[in-house]
Give the backbone structure.
Amino acid sequence: MSSNQTDMLEAARAERLWPRPPLWVAALGAAAIALLLAYPFIFKASFSHHLMILILLYALMAQSWNVVAGLSGQISLGQAIFFGIGAYSSTVLFTKYAITPWAGLLVGMLLSALAAVAIGVPTLRLRGHYFAIATLLIGSSVQIVFQRWDWVGAASGLYVPIDRTSPLFYLQFHTSKVPYYYLALGAAAAGYLVVWKLRRSRFGFRLQALRDEPDAAASLGIAIARHKVLAFMISGAMMSVAGTFYGQYVLVLDPERLFSMEISIIVLLMTVLGGSGTLWGPALGAAILVPLSEYSRIWFGGTGRTIDLILYGILILLVCMWRPSGILSLLEERIRRRTGTP
Amino acid sequence: MSLLLDVKGLTKRYGGLTANAEMTFDVNEGEIVGIIGPNGAGKSTLFDLITGFQPPDAGRVLLDGRDITGLRPDRISRLGVARTFQKLKPFPDLTVTENVIVGALARTSDMKTARDQALESLAFVDLLEKRNHFARELSTGQRKRLELARGLAMSPRLILMDEVTGGVDQRTIAGLIELVLELKHRGLTIVTIEHNMQVIMRLADRILALHAGRRIAFGTPEQVRSEPAVVDAYLGTIDDAA
């Protein structure tokens, strides 16, 4: 080792493991947090609340796709499975056994993680597109099962029974959307915190390694299949949380909607648009696509039902041509370079 | 000297083509064994068979007396076997330091420890100044050193290097030779595939010469150099070209 390397090693070892973000980024982050916390009191319209609740839930859902696809590189086309499981778990437990949706939330996460194991163990060992195809087909099958399953209401679905006695226990609020807003904010924040930690952990590093070069990853002792299955479990559990909150928010469980391909595709589109594999890309994608969808529904009414999908298509096309790694990658790369975050 | 790697009768066929036929050789602890042979001789296949990336049709691989034949690559790696790839495989979207951290994480789950270990490996291969660059931004020579650093960061007992000096300029080669000798000095056992005859003669304690999937010689550089089959198959062609 030359002496210049020795000096440089001293300097490099003294660097922080995770450098502090530049001041302007920290300031921007603090402002964003303040804005999110105060949002319902700045924008008082019920629709403003509704819009933000959806953005936050979709930000969480897109992040869940990001964990399995962005970090471990496995394209899931069946995220709606976990969304539906989350909604059905809490609602079935509540309607049939009077168990609080909070417990249902945990049961949904557990069942989703188990479903991820059942789907992932046979398919994630294979390379190539088997996983994408399998999740696509299993997603459709699960929807059909729920549409035929009488015990959970078959095609007409389930209603969450109205109970005004204890909103927090029953997780339903009828006078204002504000509590839902904070629940959605809390759920999204928890999800992003988990992924933030994950990306800085041994597990997160290993996922990114096997995503890009599975052979090199294996040569460094990484058990590829096991890591992919674990990522899929985390992804499923996150998606399930969004499903439970969504079910409690709309109070109607329609298998046509909950298990729809549209849900599976949209979380993919949001993430790819914002930046797959980045921390904030999924949130950015949700913040762009949810308003697009809601406003096009308002402007075009019932006839405009698919207009939002056309707009999504155009946006994705533009991103693919102009910046395939997503909108956020431009910014994140610069920050990383400048601060030297390892 | 104790036996670290013992390869017995490894055979691999692809349809009618025999990529490796009853390959037998051994590597002592602390030794450098070089593997030579023309293109298509079966060198990289042999690495794939030893490290578990491909299952052999016949034969055994023993590591320190333990049968590792047919184990998954990650299992073999965890037993202390590192390798580099002829077709380089850096993690392109991770920085240079992050690439090596992934290697260091084979031995520790603490990120700080892994980072410091990674920096040491990078200093060893003289790549510290590039530490915050993305791996995709490196030149071929730098990528080779990165891959070496990544493997070294997992503190292996044995490293299999596939053409470390291939495709890099002469000046860089001298540095790489120094690196390999320093690794040996530190007690690492090394098997290296090498096209450059001067390099291999200088580095290797023993040389395994392959031709068309078969072993044609195995011994000290002097023995291998004087083997008629080797001169015919490999050295002969160089003389012809020159």
In short: The beta strands of chain A are 158-159, 252-253.
